[in-house]
Amino acid sequence: MTKTDTHAERPPIEPDFLKSAFPEAIELPQEEIESAKRFFNRELSWLSFNWRVLEEAENPRVPLLERLRFVSISATNLDEFYTVRVAGLRELAREGSTATSIDGLTAPEQLALIHADARQLMAHQQEVFRALQIEMQGEGISLCDRNTLVEGDLAHLEEVFLRRVFPVLSPLAVDPAHPFPFIPNTGFALALELTRTADGRRLQALLPIPNQIDRFVRIPAEKDHARFLPLEDLLLLFIGKLFPGYTLTGNCAFRVLRNSDMEVEDEAEDLVREFETALKRRRRGDVIRLQISAGAPQNLASMIRRELHVSDDEVVEISGLIGKADLSELVIDERPDLLWPSYTPRVPERIEDHNGDMFAAIRQKDMLLHHPYETFDLVVRFLEQAALDPDVVAIKQTLYRTSRNSPIVSALCEAAEAGKSVTALVELKARFDEAANIRQSRRLERSGAHVVYGFMNYKTHAKISTVVRREGDDLVTYTHFGTGNYHPITAKIYTDLSLFTCDAALGRDATRVFNYLSGYAMPDKLESLAISPTTLKSTLIERIDEEARHAEAGRPAEIWAKMNSLIERDVIEALYDASQRGVKITLVVRGICGVRPGIKGLSENIRVKSIVGRFLEHSRIVCFGNGHGLPSRAARVYISSADWMGRNLNRRVETLVEVKNDTVKAQIVGQVMAANLHDVAQSWVMQPDGSFLRPDLSALDHPFNCHRFFMENPSLSGRGSAGAADVPELTHSHD
Q1: Which positions are catalytic?
Q2: CB under 8 Å to 170, separation ≥6 — which residues?
Q3: Which pLDDT belongs to residue 63?
Q4: Could you say which of 307, 355, 380, 509 would form a disulfide bridge with 180 (CB–CB 3.0 to 4.6 Å)?
């Protein structure tokens, strides 16, 4: 295959093997079809996704240390789920709210189901980790405990303790003169029972484990081996140096999760200051889950529960390692044989043909990048080149999440300091990145950029950059629309799309959106763009209905959509209606999905799959056959920043960008979506009861893997010289 003929190697569309993985439609009583049972619960659907993440840790096709990473990801996901979603449901339950979820459950009913499922998930995390430990030992990587140390270890560990740990420890007695200390969100501590050697006096104490120190301490080992000791074991090993004259008689470990949702006053005069205050409140939120060592001494366990004010259903006893999110520390770089093969993202040849000149490449025609297969560095270069270009007069940029030392923020600062007009929309409400975004906003303001914060009641989640450049007597707007954040680090592991264009209509649309964000000037007309909370949802529903009208007229009617989450009631109802009217609908939904597929009389034409693999599927795409089926030149193709959730469609500023360039459309439909639909190796198929099944791969030597396909094939963008006439005709996926 030549480097420019990218279409020759496009994946085949849905082979018979994959078609057979989708279940036959089933019948349900009409009263159930018409009830709330036609939807799946958001929270349980999310837990189902996290089960799929954990099951990758058991997938023998995944390298050993990457499987360990999946355990860590599953644990981190569950922590965030509890601190936000479960915390919110608990507040509703305490207030006596009778509101129900999309599937008809009250907050207490959901909490009961969540706790039952989550406890099973946490227990399985331990089982998976134990199995991985055995495999790791076979590969020379050991997690030791105090009982498995060998001669010579103690001297090394004592030096580590005294030089790198002891100075930051704060042992705390617990008695009437020393009240129980505050343990922050995700705080981890040891509870201790001690007896004074001199007179037998008993003492209870806490030893908070500082998060500034690595959780696992490296121990000297033979060549090609690695040995680690958990930090809590190191502390217990040298407890006598913290409590001289005392003997340890009992101990347990515990970890705290607190309510991390934030409340901000609607009438705040200084939004940045209000968020700084809210961040401090978050740190002190109510405890919503306590993990404690199984078999903890009764008096210690009782003290911890009493002082943290937790009920029995908020306590989880752990037999094994507490805080499995920290296992990512054991994914060590010196064992590449146990990691995914290294991968370097490509630079499209069109950029090389123009000697790295982003503006020249975009002027040639619209350019699509598929991250992480094509480097996100080009998005950074777009802004860095704009900052240095004397013909650039203005830059506008949204920032939802970005890295700590963001090169994008640096480029914006450099542009502002050079006298260009720079406007940055910094979203302070990006959960868990609020503090970082406050720092970035301060930095931008110091450089002379105009910093705005959008709306009090809406998050700005859209991903837009515009660069206005003087070319002759005209001002030309170069625009970038993305499906993912302007975050160079996560862009290496998230799959997303970047569209670069100098199309005048899209440039005008982007400018109108920025005017809306900075001046509350509601756009009176958008030419190729829809935005939430105003027109995005209605546009989606209108396109779905148009496809249904094609089906009723006897024309091929098909929808392919890809997103992270789908739970918005009105959109789901529109999909159900379209299915009943004959539209073939295939959905690739990574996480939450409220659609119940494969129900006769409701959703027999809807199929749902989820992809969980090396990269985190993050791009949002929707393709409508437009009376010609899919894939087709006539398709209407959109990329978006929005998932199909109530928050995205009704309470955020999001974009839905129609792609009109024929080559870019073919790349999205015939390559990105086709590969996702064809994937077998990383796919799970949703059943009518809401469960997900992985196809049996035992009969396949090389099941198709869409991530591997894109890593091994040349750039989607190629040289960008092909026109619409050069795009091959694509075949339909349905007979």
Answers
A1: 461
A2: 207, 208
A3: 98
A4: 307
